[in-house]
Write a structure and sequence with these properties.
Blueprint (H helix, E strand, L loop, with lengths): L1 H19 L11 E2 L5 E6 L11 E10 L4 E4 H4 L3 E4 L7 H8 L6 E6 L19 E10 L1
Antiparallel strand pairs: 1-2, 2-6, 3-4, 3-5, 3-7, 6-7
């Protein structure tokens, strides 16, 4: 009997850990594509303010290449990024993706090269790279 209870307990833990490990990988039907070609999926929606053009936003993010190579991680560095929407202080795909978020929300962006760094190489990012960015909107001012 103890062996059976132990088995059920382990099976339950495995089931729960498999389900929670998929939080970052949204189901296909949750992905949206904008007219510009930006794809996004909300991990969770925020309940705070939505930014307006010319407002400063503060974000945390993890930027990766398609192969999973991490380019930048503000969570790890402890230095969030702040920029003004519409000033072209960030790549176009990031600005577009953040512009429809609410404070407290987290979203995964798939940014095509034309909304990223295009044909240019930048800080270890090869030319014509698609970028995957998990972004969290921390503050709007």
């Amino acid at each position: 009997m103890r062996l059976f209870v132990l088995f059920v307990l382990i099976a339950s833990l495995v089931f729960v850990s498999c389900r929670t490990s998929k939080v970052g990988s949204s189901k296909e039907e949750n992905w949206r594509t904008t007219p510009s070609g930006l794809q996004y999926s909300d991990v969770y929606e925020g309940r705070g303010e939505m930014p307006k053009p010319r407002q400063r936003v503060t974000i945390n993010f993890i930027m990766k290449l398609e192969d999973g190579t991490i380019i930048e991680d503000t969570y790890k560095s402890g230095i969030p990024m702040t920029f003004t929407l519409g000033n072209k202080d960030a790549i176009e795909g990031l600005e577009e993706g953040v512009s429809t978020m609410r404070v407290g929300g987290k979203r995964i962006l798939i940014i095509p090269p034309e909304l990223g760094f295009g044909a240019h190489s930048y800080r270890g990012i090869p030319p014509n790279s698609k970028l995957i960015i998990e972004v969290e909107l921390v503050k709007v001012e």
